[in-house]
Write a structure and sequence with these properties.
This protein has 285 residues and is an alpha/beta fold. The chain is built from 7 helices and 14 strands. Its cofactor is FAD.
Length: 285
């Protein structure tokens, strides 16, 4: 049984599209930022939670609805008693490996096609594997790709606007196919750059060497370029590593950490400690 099928979808809320705008250029893959407004005061959502979107869709398995989870991409806000939540959506399609037919992603295309005022059904909120640490001297290594920036953007904004005197180091490694697709870290939509002057925060970019060839994003090289600092952070028991992004990058990240630690055995032992201490979490898609 999948994780999604375990979630309670009976409790549903009506959400209305308050804003929707495209973050990426028209000649790149479409990624939209959508702000939803939920009128029901019973719906509350925090920065380290996700929510579901239900789309009416018949499948071969007999399901009447398609359920997809989205991380909160900004600080949830309240206006006139209504909760506002922000999400990132990438319009997806895939080729069936047997038939060769092109299919559109159900939820992503549904959401990207919504307009201001449209109503959608949402579920949740649900817990994310990622949690903002309670201790303010905790270190965080955040590794995100594409729309995987969403939960980390909310984390960073929460920590520097609502937490007081955060002392731990926060290192954000963010990858995209090209500089124009670096969400919230480019000249147009650069709100994460507002935190560059924070003594504890630094962000590092990684791009694909050949974006039109669908090559892996070079996040491993970006991380290894900071090997000395990463090794120091891994020497502390209060360091967390959170990853959100593509499966194809995961193997290269593992190799990078092996190189930083000096051997496969040392990295496997350290990673096991992180997992046991609930300081390692990943959302891979």
């Amino acid at each position: 049984m999948s994780y999604l099928s375990d979630l309670n979808t009976k409790q549903q809320y009506k959400a209305r599209v308050k804003q929707t705008h495209r973050l990426t250029p028209t000649n790149k893959e479409e990624i939209r930022e959508i702000i939803l407004e939920v009128e029901d005061p019973a719906f509350k959502c925090k920065v380290d939670q996700s929510f579901g979107v239900l789309v009416k869709h018949s499948s071969d398995f007999g399901n009447e609805f398609h359920h997809r989870l989205y991380s909160v991409a900004d600080l949830p806000a309240t206006q006139n008693g209504h909760t506002q939540i922000t999400m990132l959506v990438k319009r997806c399609n895939y080729v069936d490996e047997f038939s060769g037919e092109l299919y559109n992603g159900v939820s992503s295309n549904y959401l990207c096609d919504r307009r201001v005022g449209d109503e959608i059904n949402i579920t949740g909120p649900f817990e994310l594997p990622f949690k903002v640490p309670e201790e303010k001297n905790a270190n965080m290594i955040l590794i995100g790709m594409g729309t995987g920036i969403a939960p980390f953007r909310a984390f960073i904004k929460h920590i520097y606007s609502q937490e007081k005197d955060w002392k731990g180091k926060i290192r954000l490694f963010y990858g995209a196919k090209s500089g124009l697709e670096l969400l919230y870290l480019n000249d147009k939509d650069g709100d994460l750059t507002n935190y560059y002057d924070k003594a504890t925060f630094e962000a590092f970019h990684a791009l694909s060497p050949r974006p039109h060839w669908n090559d892996p994003i070079m996040l491993d090289e970006a991380i290894e370029s900071r090997a000395e600092e990463i090794l120091e952070m891994l020497s502390y028991a209060n360091t967390y590593i959170y990853i959100a992004g593509y499966e194809k990058v995961k193997e290269n990240l593992n190799k990078a950490f092996i190189n930083i630690m000096g051997s496969k055995e040392k990295w496997e032992n350290r990673k096991a400690e992180l997992i046991a201490g609930k300081k390692w979490a990943e959302v891979i898609y």
